[in-house]
Amino acid sequence: MDKTIQHWEQRGKQSFTYKGEDFYTITPAPFYYYRRNKILCFIKKQLDSLEKSCVLDFGCGDGYYSIFFSKQTEHLRFYGCDTSKAFINRAKINNKINSADVEFREIKNGIPFNKKFSLIFIISVFAHIYEDTEILRIIGEFNYKLFKNGLLVLVESTAKKSRGNKINKRRKISDYINYFNLDYDVIDITHNPKLFQTFINRTLLFFLRLLFFNNNGVLANKNRFYILISEVVYWFSTKIDALFKNSDGYTFFAFKKK
Length: 258
Fold this sequence. Notes:
Blueprint: H1 3-11, E1 16-18, E2 21-23, H2 29-47, E3 53-58, H3 64-72, E4 76-82, H4 85-97, E5 103-106, E6 117-123, H5 132-145, E7 146-158, E8 163-164, E9 169-170, H6 173-180, E10 184-193, H7 195-202, H8 204-213, H9 217-220, H10 224-241, E11 249-257
Parallel strand pairs: 3-4, 3-6, 4-5, 6-7
Antiparallel strand pairs: 1-2, 7-11, 8-9, 10-11
Helix pairs in contact: 7-8, 7-10
């Protein structure tokens, strides 16, 4: 099994509860939770422009985003796919629990739906694909699956300089623009700096995870003291990060197919 797929299979089997919801992220829960709220707002802005149509959540994980929007937008039909069988199983369970009507399928050989979409959104997927050629291959699939003038919404961690490993790689904003430049127009880019958040996560919170939780982010997120510390430093870090607009962070992109 591919190491990246194996990594997400394991991640899909671990979870914790925060604010009454189940999460699987190794990111400090408050950091993930408030970032997710910003992502929801950005995607909703793009969905609001659509009439009755189909939407794909590519790399859907536990299905949270597609399930959430399916409950908010009755005129849209949502589909989700992922390479992780564990996450697809979890997404199907969440779909049933929330009485939603999203169709989830495992990716085995390309996008597993025989239809075209008016919008595809991809959240924190490309950061876990090391080879640029694989990203370009996936974008080629998007080109085939999107209608003309269809929207592609991308959320990714970005950096001033590309760096990382085969599990997590940050790329420059300009890299993503270049990937889509040939077949898409840029309609929106929103950058959210998190220089101080990253520093805190790699120093103070990393030390706490290493000392008390064997550097297991999911286990740490189950601890109330760790969550309290994370909430406090998140609040301070957002104030400081606002001063560093061009730093590393996460970036929201909206492209329109030509």
